[in-house]
Every structure is written in structure tokens, then in C-alpha cells.
Amino acid sequence: MRKSLYGMKLEEMMEELGFEKKFQARIVRDNLIKGVTDFSKMTSLSKKDRERLTRDAMTTTVIEKQESESAVKLALRLSDGLIVECVRLSDGKDRYTACLSSQVGCAMGCAFCKTGTMGLKRNLEEGEIIEQFVHLEKLGEKISHIVFMGMGEPLNNFSSLMEAIQTFHDREQFDISYRKITISTSGYVPGIHKLCELELPLKLAVSLVTADDEKRSRLMRINRTYPLGELKKALISFQRRENKRITLEYCMLSSYNTGEEDAEKLRKFLSGLDALVNLIPWNPIEGMDFKTPTDEEIRAFTNELRKRNINYSIRRSKGRDISGACGQLASNIE
Ligand code: SF4
User: How far is CA 269 from CA 49, 136, 164, 199, 274, in A?
Assistant: First the structure.
């Protein structure tokens, strides 16, 4: 498998590309950050080097692009032939967010998620995570925010995830503030503790789905190992360190987690936490029996939340029509 030049230390890049001087690697790195991946176009390199380096600097290739009004989804072929997806989301003004994958497939098997049906194929390497961002920026707009909500459980690929985040944050490279980077987890408690130890002002989102242990265990295998009590303890310690609001993603499944009792359980879970509940009406996935709640059902549930002073927002999924919305990433391309 070919290693990506993205995220490589300059010394490593010198060895990989047969350079004698560090400045040559620096020229390549500066070009890569700007999205120039064809060596023949790196005009600050000597003619000899440009002629010698004939391959494209990227290890991934875009094989499919789908667009909707607010989202563009790319399918990328990795150097071993596997496929991964990433999405550029727009807020309709001037803010663009890259939704990146951390794994090909996912081992967590959440019952409402298409990626979960694939199983885990493998972890992505640091460079493969960064290349998704570069492909999305090559679409033509500057991307200011990153969310790790694509394929995979990011905290299960901790070292590559953190290496990629360091590169995104590095002032000499992508210069994206930690505060603009969100890691979304299904509730992998050891990963949340590890994240706490790093003491970085990254944002955390947790896919809660329901605050009822029994229902959650039925939908999300992770809850059988790390039930809500343990998850809450981890979130409290994260919040103590980072003093930051956490987002709890609440995928709304019609007649499953939208009742009065569900709102009450949610209230109890939230006590002692500073969290925003992000309601996401489930995005239909072929072959799954869940239903998207009706507008009336959503209204009734939000009334219950209001009665309990729960902070919430509703995410009308961007990219649903191109299967680029939350829980819908799983490639159909062979
Ligand atoms: S919701 Fe997230 S953690 Fe669960 S299966 Fe899907 S990608 Fe994996």
C-alpha cells in the first residue's frame, strides 16, 4: 500500500522522494497544502525533480461525485482498492464543513446506520484522512470546519485521528483551530478518557439516540459494554477538563425514542451536563425497518423537551438526497 505524503514529516518526505535538501520537501509540502498534487506543476522544484517525479502525489482518487443544494459527496478509491466517502456541507452562506471518515466501514454495527452494515474493513491512515479534506477543498471553496462524522468510529482509530488533527491544526499547514474540529463518537468511553488526557479544546459530539439503557443496548452494541452511567461519567470528566458544551446527537426514530417517557429519561441523563441535544430525524435507509418521525411527532417531542428546559436544535439533514447525510455513508460502488 502506497503511503500518503500528507502528514509526512519533512525528513520522511525527503527519503520517500529522494531529496537531498529539506527545502525541496518543504516546497512539495507547501504545494500539497494548496492542493497542487501534480509534481510537474510544482514550479519551484527544479526541472530535473519535476521530470523525475512523475506520479501524482495523492494515494486516493475521486471515483464518484454527487451534489445536492447543500452538500457534495465524494467517493474515493484508496490505494488498496477500498472505497471511502466524505462530504462537504454548506450552511448556505459562506461556511463550509468537511465531514470526514476515519475508517472504511465500522465495527460498531449501530442498527440505524448504513455504515454499520459494512463491518470494519480497516482503519484509515493519517494521510488518507487528510486527503479527503484536500479533495473536498479542491471542489473550490475554503473549508473552515471539520467534523469526524463520516464512516467509522473515530475514537477507535485514535492515533491516526490525532495525527491528522495535529496536521490540520499546524499553523504551517492547514491552520484550523481545534475549536472548529468536532469528533463524533458512538460513546466509546476509553477513547473519551484518552481525549480528556490530551487537554485539547476539541469539540465532542456523542451519538446518544436514547437515554434508556435497554433501548440503547438494542440499537447500539457499544452500550452493552459502556452503558449510559459510564458514558455520563466520562462526559462529566471531559467537561470538567474542557469546560465546553457537548453535543448529544439524538437520531429520532418514529415511535421508538420520541415519547414523553423518552424526554423524561433524557432530562435525567442531562442533569449535571452542559449539553445541546441535536435532534436528527432518521434518514431513510433501504432495507431498514425504522421510520422517520412525522413533523407532528417531532413537534410533540420538542414540546416535551421545552417543558423540561432541555436545550435542543433540529438538524434537517443536509445531503439526504445524495445519501450523504448522517448514518448514510456506505459505498455502493464496486
Ligand atoms: S453510527 Fe457511527 S459508530 Fe455507529 S455504526 Fe454508524 S458509523 Fe459506526
Answer: 60, 37, 32, 24, 11
